[in-house]
């Protein structure tokens, strides 16, 4: 009898390759499906809407203009000048090719993010990793922050990948560089500069700050007029996030205040945001010092989403690492703990079927009639997560020195 030997390493590589291809294929197929629905519905949320704003800003800068004097259907460019430079390759392609190229890159970032989390939450050599990669990718595709980001061509998923890569994988003198670059593209990641400094990673925090300041300097060097406009006050103008006359609320504390009490001044929401910011960062630092690093990162991210003046549903792409962490903690705990993961998955998946029904005409309900409840739900969810993190830290034992700081194992 002839026995054919099998190479376990080659078999594992084939399985991993097949799983990655499945995850990427499912991601691209999901985007194609959403694109097909939106293109045939006449939806105001046209595919690539945000990407078109980026493209117009780049074209204005290349024409020696300023990206902050342009808008598309009333939506203006609100990112720092360095973002224009980073997005310059958009001018090399036509609108259709640019949109699909951007979509593919963003789609590839989805399984990349899931893989970073699987690698962080599972022991090295765990044979379940390819399966978890595929299952995780398929699970997050229907989530509205992911689907919405991919549909609109936003930069959220790519920034999430940069931040997780820096905070979870990079160590030593290079940690903080990608945090600073991400903040140079979009200001909200600046909250992680404070997180690094407060968790006594002074070198990483200073590196992140210097990297960010480097992006500002590059902006002044190559786009001086745009830099003067942006840093001279345009970065404080939240009115450019929506066309004139349209409501621009969102799911931050400010958005909740405007949803519940239309028209309040800063005194109605700013003090609350300051308190939440201080408490949220304190809980994040507490988590990091107890060895719960991913909990600290997520608490910091949620704090940033709550205190930001404008937070849209697509900004909640942090739901992906959140669900991964909760799944890891409840993996061996049947009952109510697992129900929490399912409930949170539904919270972040909920807007997508509503949106599909709305754009295809199955539910001709005014946008604000269902968007406002979702925005308030996201705000309450974020606040609840900060409380949940504090309760968990109070009840759990600190991670012993030498243990992996993952906050759970799958």
Question: Can you describe this structure?
Answer:
The protein has 410 residues and is an all-alpha fold. It has one domain (21-225, 250-395). 65% of the residues lie in helices and 1% in strands. The chain is built from 18 helices and 2 strands. Strands 1-2 form a two-stranded antiparallel ribbon. Strand 1 and strand 2 (75-76) form a beta hairpin. Residues 1-6 and 401-407 have low confidence and may be disordered.
Structure described in brief:
The chain is 65% helix and 1% strand. It is mainly alpha-helical and 410 residues long. A hairpin with a 2-residue loop joins strand 1 and strand 2.
User: How confident overall, as mean pLDDT?
Assistant: 82
Helix fraction bin:
55-70%
pLDDT < 50 runs, ≥5 residues: 1-6, 401-407
| Principal-axis shape | globular
**Nearest-angstrom radius of gyration?**
22 Å
Spatial strand order of the main sheet: 1-2
Oligomer: single chain
Estimated share of beta-strand residues? under 5%
GO molecular function, one term: hexosyltransferase activity
Subcellular location: Cell membrane
InterPro entries: GT87
Protein name: Alpha-1,2-mannosyltransferase
Task: Describe the secondary-structure layout.
Blueprint: H1 8-39, H2 49-62, E1 71-72, E2 75-76, H3 81-86, H4 95-121, H5 129-140, H6 144-152, H7 156-169, H8 177-185, H9 191-198, H10 202-222, H11 224-231, H12 253-260, H13 270-289, H14 293-307, H15 319-330, H16 336-349, H17 351-359, H18 367-395
Antiparallel strand pairs: 1-2
């Amino acid at each position: 009898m002839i026995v054919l030997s099998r190479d376990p390493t080659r078999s594992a590589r084939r399985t991993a390759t097949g799983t990655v291809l499945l995850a990427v294929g499912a991601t691209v197929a999901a985007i194609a499906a959403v694109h097909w629905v939106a293109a045939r519905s006449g939806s105001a949320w046209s595919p690539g809407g945000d990407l078109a704003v980026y493209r117009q800003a780049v074209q204005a800068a290349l024409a020696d203009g300023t990206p902050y004097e342009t808008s598309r259907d009333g939506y203006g460019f609100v990112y720092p000048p360095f973002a224009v430079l980073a997005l310059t390759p958009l001018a090399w392609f036509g609108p259709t090719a640019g949109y699909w190229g951007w979509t593919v890159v963003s789609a590839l970032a989805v399984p990349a993010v899931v893989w970073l989390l699987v690698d962080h939450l599972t022991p090295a050599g765990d044979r379940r990793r390819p399966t978890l990669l595929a299952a995780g990718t398929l699970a997050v595709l229907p989530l509205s922050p992911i689907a919405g980001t991919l549909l609109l061509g936003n930069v959220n998923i790519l920034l999430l990948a940069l931040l997780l890569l820096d905070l979870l994988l990079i160590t030593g003198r290079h940690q903080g560089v990608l945090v600073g670059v991400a903040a140079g593209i979009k200001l909200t990641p600046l909250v992680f500069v404070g997180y690094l400094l407060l968790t006594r990673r002074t070198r990483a925090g200073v590196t992140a700050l210097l990297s960010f300041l480097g992006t500002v300097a590059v902006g002044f060097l190559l786009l001086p007029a745009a830099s003067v406009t942006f840093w001279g006050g345009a970065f404080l103008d939240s009115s450019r996030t929506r066309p004139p006359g349209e409501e621009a609320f969102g799911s931050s504390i400010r958005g909740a205040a405007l949803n519940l009490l239309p028209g309040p001044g800063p005194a109605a929401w700013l003090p609350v945001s300051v308190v939440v910011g201080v408490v949220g960062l304190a809980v994040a630092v507490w988590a990091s010092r107890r060895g719960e690093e991913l909990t600290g990162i997520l608490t910091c991210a949620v704090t940033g989403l709550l205190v930001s003046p404008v937070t849209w549903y697509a900004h909640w792409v942090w739901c992906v690492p959140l669900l991964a962490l909760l799944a890891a903690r409840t993996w061996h705990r049947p009952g109510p703990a697992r129900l929490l993961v399912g409930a949170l998955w539904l919270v972040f998946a909920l807007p997508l079927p509503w949106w599909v029904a709305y754009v295809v005409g199955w539910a001709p309900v005014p946008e604000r009639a269902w968007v406002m409840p979702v925005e308030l739900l996201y705000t309450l969810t974020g606040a609840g997560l900060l409380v949940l993190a504090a309760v968990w830290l109070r009840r759990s034992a600190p991670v012993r020195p030498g243990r992996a700081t993952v906050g759970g194992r799958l």
